[in-house]
Amino acid sequence: MNDKLELSPFVVTLNSEKVIEYFRDRPLSQKQQDDLTATDKKLNLGIDLAGEFIQQPTDQDKAIFMANIIVNALNSDDETTIAVACAFLATRYIHLKQLKITAHEGRISIELINDQLYADPVPIRFIPKKDLL
Q: Is 6 in contact with 94 (CB distance < 8 Å)?
C-alpha cells in the first residue's frame, strides 16, 4: 500500500470551494474509533438511500449515504456529525480523495473522487488585447 496515498488529505468542496480538509495522519481517540465502529454496525443494518431501503448496503452505498450525511450536516452547521462522517469516509475509504458537492437550482449533486487529489484553483489572468501586441 502506498503510504502517500493513505496519508493524503480528504477534502470536501462545496461549489468548488474547499470547506473541509480531513488529515488522515492525525490519530483518532478511542472514543472516535468507537463512534466509527458503531457507525459501521448501524450502516450494516441497512440504510435509506434516495427513498429506497437497502437491506445489505455495498461499500459504495455506504459512501454515498455518508456523503449525503455531510451535505445535510453542512446545511445545519452540525459540526459533530460533519466530523464523524468525514472521519468515516476518510478512514474507511482510503482511496477517496475528494467529495465534491455542487448546489444548483435547488438541487444538490455529489461526486466521490478517488483518482485526483484536491488542488487549489488557480485564477485565470486575462491580458488585455492591447498588451499582447
A: yes
